[in-house]
Amino acid sequence: MKLGILKRDERGFTLIEMALAIAVANLIIVGVSSAFFQIVKDTDEGVDRLDALHDIEIATTWLSRDIRAANTTDLVDGAPPVSQVEFQWTEEWGGTSVPHLSSYSFSETDLIRTYDGSQLRVASYVSNVEFSLSGNTVTVTLESSPGFRGVIEERTYSFNLRPTP
Known about the structure:
This protein has one helix at residues 15-69; strands at residues 72-73, 85-93, 96-107, 110-115, 118-123, 126-134, 137-144, 153-160. By secondary structure, it is of the alpha+beta class. The strands form 2 sheets. The chain has a 5-stranded antiparallel β-sheet, covered by helices on one side. A 3-stranded antiparallel β-sheet has the order 6-7-8, covered by helices on one side. It is rod-shaped. The relative contact order is 0.16.
């Protein structure tokens, strides 16, 4: 081989070919990384949505149990919704009447259930709660907002109080 004379198969890439290859590679990398970050963002929002729905589900389980057992409440029929409520009922055990009191209060982001003097946090991400009474039906609206991504889930449920004997 003589200096300065290259055979066709011994030539390298031109500067234009290298620049074009780098540009195409950058486009592919940008596209893949954008898709990756979008998937992570969507996953985080999905996790927040599941946390919010789980929060509402747990609170609703306790509320349903207490409202359906209750004969009376401190809610006023037809009044605007409130964020605190009490439910009372009496159970009969072997000829003995056992009175029960269950109350729910909203504190910052927690929904607190107090049952016969014992407190339990039944929801941790509550951003709003409303209780109202219409006839024998208690309507509960729960709004849950976990995380900092702006995910808010709201659900409204209606439960009937147990008829007074």
